[in-house]
Amino acid sequence: MSFLTIVIILFVFILAALLGIWIALLLMRPSGRKFLLKNAPIQVVTFILISLIIFSLIFGASTLYRASAYYRVVQDQFNTAEGVIQTGSVLAQYAEAWKNNRSSITKEIWLQQMMLPTSNSHCFTGDPSICALFSNVGINVTSRWNSYIVFLALGLTGVLAFLGYSGWILKLRYEEENTPEKILRPRPRSKARR
Q1: How far apart are CA 8 and CA 36, in angstroms?
Q2: Which has the closest alpha carbon to 153: 2, 14, 5, 4?
Q3: 3-state secondary structure (DSSP) of residue 177
Q4: How far apart are CA 91 and CA 163, in angstroms?
Q5: What are the domain boundaries of the chain?
Q6: Digit-coded pLDDT (tens) for 29-76
């Protein structure tokens, strides 16, 4: 793995954590915080639902990004080889089919990336011509464990950041609101000021 890849992965993990913290800040405004502190069952349900939304959002966005990257890489290779490809050849037909079916190809790759890695291939969009195009072009778009674990970890990073920061805010504010304030006695005036 190159240094640039490591930096990009760390940056994406930081973005996932920041998204979780940002959503916690939005949810933990004073009115929402008081409501959640008074209703423990609603607090649990709210945290579970928002955690699922955060995980789905991050997991879906990262797999969609990978699907569009797959598409761009193959399209760039077709564009590079455009001068070499003979008009009317089989390769020219594949290049044309790849160019004309961008949304279907990206959707199929995206669905493949979201599924658990398995040895058998499945066509999720139901368009066999799109799935045949992958094998004709020579790429395998099924998910792999190394990238799938990274996508899962990204989603969990956002969820853990949300839960950790929300819990910290609730605990901190609860302690602040339930700790009696110290009564400050007025300072006696100095004799010099009299």
Answers
A1: 36
A2: 14
A3: helix
A4: 51
A5: 16-177
A6: 877 777 787 888 888 999 999 999 999 999 999 999 999 998 999 899
